Amino acid sequence: AKQGGRGNVRFFEPQMDLELQARKALEYDLRQALLKDELELHYQPLIDLEAQKVSAVEALLRWRHPSRGLVSPGEFIPLAEETGMIISIGEWVLRTACQQALSWPGLRVAVNLSPVQFRHRELVDTVKQVLEDTGLEPGRLELEITESVLINDTEAALDILSALKGIGVHIAMDDFGTGYSSLGYLNSFPFDKIKIDKSFVTTLEDKVKSLAIVRSVIGLSESLSMTTTAEGVETMEQAMLLLGEGCKQVQGYFFGRPVPALEMTAFLGNWQGFTVL
Ligand code: C2E
Ligand code: CA
Ligand code: CA
Ligand code: CA
């Protein structure tokens, strides 16, 4: 039995394998994380290349675990999804990011939506409610979804996306090119933005194929009146290559790593553009 209402003591059956034990321990801790205020958002700048301006920030979730230190989302989001905890965690992320955006006038804030959240029947109401409660202008919120939400029930996905667009928020297709990408999706769904996955950006300079893919994604999204953001830009060379290809926006360690809100405020205050090499 675990927890058994006897304080914080946890018991594990000896036959439980180690992996499952570790998972259970993490799950137990994650259930407390929200209550104990252990979750925090870091923010990474999105740079408009032509204007050399920070025009948005992406909120990235972190878990400050009492003994493990800072845990990255890749390590606990899958668990949060499997257990349904992602619904309350996701709402916290949305609310915290919208609230925080109020102190950065003119900036848009991008929030990642898990496919589980996307399918949750209360998503649209939650988004509406959070915008109403915080008073953030809907156009300053951008929701990032991945291709996987579109594949199963295409019609339902379209309904949800239309309802979200109806509220006035922006929609970005995240990690483009990594999933079951169908170019047809781009035409059928109301995206404002395509985010080119960092795997293409990383290999931009030495893989002819990556450049070809990046070029065609930029061309296609332009012809469909969407903008493109390239993720994972780590060098000036990559940024300049992307600018040359017509990519409007970039995000990556070269311009700024994800940092806590206070540091982002300082970053924004110090921003002076960049020198083109
Ligand atoms: P993502 O949405 O694709 O976020 C971009 C990831 O790339 C982030 O990792 C970011 O720190 C990292 N990154 C940014 N610039 C660079 C770069 O120049 N080079 C490299 N190598 N990496 C870069 P992070 O923060 O570990 O997040 C991983 C994933 O976890 C995210 O991928 C997203 O799918 C998910 N995630 C993060 N926050 C949330 C959240 O609040 N809700 C949900 N549902 N998922 C989230
Ligand atoms: Ca994202
Ligand atoms: Ca991404
Ligand atoms: Ca990713």
From TrEMBL:
<protein>
    <submittedName>
        <fullName>EAL domain-containing protein</fullName>
    </submittedName>
</protein>
<feature type="domain" description="EAL">
    <location>
        <begin position="23"/>
        <end position="272"/>
    </location>
</feature>
